[in-house]
């Protein structure tokens, strides 16, 4: 196991067996996997995805947990040759986002927080397939899950640092989310992000960079802290851009 | 070219191999693509999880969006799969009917299956008000004989209206139009008749109060179907609101707030 990564914040799975490929287009060659406790996961191997998505997934997952975003439990697995990012399988999540679900979202607060997370981590890949939809006990009560943050720019430290305080581009974003009703919770999450301590954010970056063997820990830490300190402006701009989408 | 089909399965657990068909996409000998659906679905008891039963039902309702044998629409999640293509036997005159017959359950399976159900149009429509934060102004089911002080009590034979907002001197009577419902076209016809009946009654109810008939089209559905509903209902409603259009939607929400706010103020005055 590489020395750089000492799992602390993210669970390290053992005894994982692969299943079939997850039958989703552009699914980054994800496979179903099962661990020794019979928990089921979606595995993305570093060989298939590259190392940047490992960093991005880990950072987004840890920051998302601080912001209370609805996202699958994350974990990592090392099989002796390579790392994999593991997302716990979400049962009964039969659909991806579609604009016709607009009025049936049961967790608007959590979806708003997801937008804040995306704005801060420069996740410009929140298209419809990266929002998984799980019904509650009724067809009019749908719980949305944020999945697949592997393309967030935070996984590319140089690019992330270079972007400074610029908001994320909304152009690839899933259409049809009700932005106005999400605004309050997104801005509340921005406030939470702005008050996270330097220590908390440093810990997130250190863990994610350790997993990805990324040496630019300090630069990425400073960039994330800076964005979080300006979270209200960044998130507000992002929401405006999303609201203006056709 | 011979006719072929691909079964559309739902596999709720990738490690047990359990799966069952939702339907099939069928390409006939001329290449025309149509969808065969199972008529009954596994019950929540059979699946062991109410959420799974709802997920299955929602995907089943989306089968109409399958237009190619190559792939499922993007909205289909990771538990829906297309099986390998199979040929329909030569000599079968109607490939779709043949596949449909194959999907019919056996008598033994029937006990574990239920007919797909959908929530009422009014229930689906009310979620719009909840999402946009105006539900406190909106009441369910306008009864002409008694509601809003019996404003239309001379027309008590009128059918009920799904939602209403009582104001001080005006009332909003609102019918949801839900394009994702399978019976959407029939819905539009029924709503047109209902609004038309009210419009006649309201023009003859000379008691100084004012009502507005509104149809609001919720999100989703095909653009041409939404357009059809707009055109048909404009002759009967005072206003037809396309809630996918931000300007129309914002105006509608603001109107509900304004009228509903006046009504609540009046209620407070009356209560003193």
Itemize the secondary structure elements and their pairings.
The complex is a heterodimer of chains A (246) and B (272).
Chain A: E1 11-13, E2 17-21, E3 31-34, E4 40-45, H1 46-49, H2 52-66, E5 74-78, E6 83-88, E7 95-96, H3 108-121, E8 131-135, E9 142-146, H4 157-163, H5 179-195, H6 198-212, H7 217-229, H8 231-243
Parallel strand pairs in A: 1-5
Antiparallel strand pairs in A: 2-3, 3-4, 4-6, 5-6, 7-8, 8-9
Helix pairs in contact in A: 2-3, 2-6, 3-5, 3-8, 4-7, 5-7, 5-8, 6-7
Chain B: E1 4-10, E2 20-27, E3 33-37, E4 41-42, H1 44-47, H2 50-61, E5 80-82, E6 86-87, H3 95-103, H4 107-110, E7 113-114, H5 121-131, E8 139-142, H6 147-150, E9 161-166, E10 170-177, H7 184-204, E11 210-217, H8 223-234, E12 239-242, H9 246-271
Parallel strand pairs in B: 10-11, 11-12
Antiparallel strand pairs in B: 1-2, 1-5, 1-6, 2-3, 4-7, 8-9, 9-10
């Amino acid at each position: 196991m590489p020395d750089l990564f000492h799992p602390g914040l993210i669970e390290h799975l053992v005894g994982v067996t692969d299943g079939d490929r997850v039958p989703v287009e552009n699914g980054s060659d994800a496979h179903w996997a099962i661990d020794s406790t019979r928990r089921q996961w979606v595995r993305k191997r570093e060989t298939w995805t590259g190392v940047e998505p490992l960093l991005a997934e880990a950072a987004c997952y840890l920051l998302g947990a601080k912001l209370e975003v609805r996202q699958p439990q994350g974990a990592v697995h090392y099989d002796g040759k390579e790392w994999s990012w593991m997302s716990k399988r979400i049962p009964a999540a039969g659909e991806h986002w579609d604009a016709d679900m607009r009025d049936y979202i049961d967790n608007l607060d959590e979806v708003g927080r997801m937008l804040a997370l995306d704005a801060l981590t420069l996740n410009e890949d929140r298209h419809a397939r990266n929002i998984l939809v799980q019904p509650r006990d009724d067809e009019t009560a749908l719980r949305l899950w944020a999945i697949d943050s592997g393309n967030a720019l935070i996984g590319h430290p140089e690019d992330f640092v270079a972007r400074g305080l610029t908001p994320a581009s909304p152009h690839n974003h899933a259409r049809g989310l009700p932005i106005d009703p999400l605004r309050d919770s997104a801005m509340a999450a921005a406030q939470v992000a702005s008050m996270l301590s330097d220590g908390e954010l440093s810990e997130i970056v250190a863990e994610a960079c350790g997993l990805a063997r990324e040496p630019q820990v300090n630069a990425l830490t400073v960039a994330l802290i800076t964005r979080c300190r300006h979270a209200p402006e960044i998130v507000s701009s992002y929401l405006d851009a999303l609201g203006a989408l056709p | 070219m011979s006719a072929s089909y691909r079964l559309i399965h739902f596999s709720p657990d990738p490690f047990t191999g359990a799966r069952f068909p939702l339907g099939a996409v069928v390409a006939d000998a001329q290449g025309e693509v149509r969808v065969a659906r199972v008529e009954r679905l596994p019950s929540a008891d059979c699946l062991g999880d109410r959420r799974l039963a709802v997920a299955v039902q929602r995907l089943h309702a989306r089968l109409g969006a399958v237009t190619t044998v190559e792939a499922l629409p993007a909205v289909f999640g990771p538990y829906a799969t297309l099986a390998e293509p199979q040929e329909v036997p030569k000599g079968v005159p109607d490939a779709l009917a043949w596949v449909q017959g194959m999907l019919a359950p056996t008598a033994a399976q029937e006990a574990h299956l239920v007919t797909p159900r959908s929530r009422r149009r009014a229930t689906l429509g009310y979620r719009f008000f909840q999402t946009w934060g105006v539900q406190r102004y909106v009441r369910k089911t306008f009864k002409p004989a008694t509601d809003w002080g019996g404003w239309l009590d001379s027309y008590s034979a009128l059918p009920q209206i799904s939602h209403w907002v009582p104001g001080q001197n005006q009332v909003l009577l609102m019918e949801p139009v839900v394009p994702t419902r399978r019976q959407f076209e029939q819905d539009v016809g029924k709503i047109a008749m209902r609004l038309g009946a009210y419009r006649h009654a309201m023009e003859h109810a000379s008691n100084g109060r004012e009502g507005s008939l509104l149809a609001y089209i919720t999100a989703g559905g095909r653009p041409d179907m939404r357009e059809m509903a707009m055109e048909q209902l404009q002759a009967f409603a005072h206003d037809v609101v396309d809630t996918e259009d931000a300007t129309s939607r914002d105006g509608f929400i603001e109107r509900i707030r304004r009228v509903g706010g006046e009504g609540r103020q009046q209620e407070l005055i009356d209560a003193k």
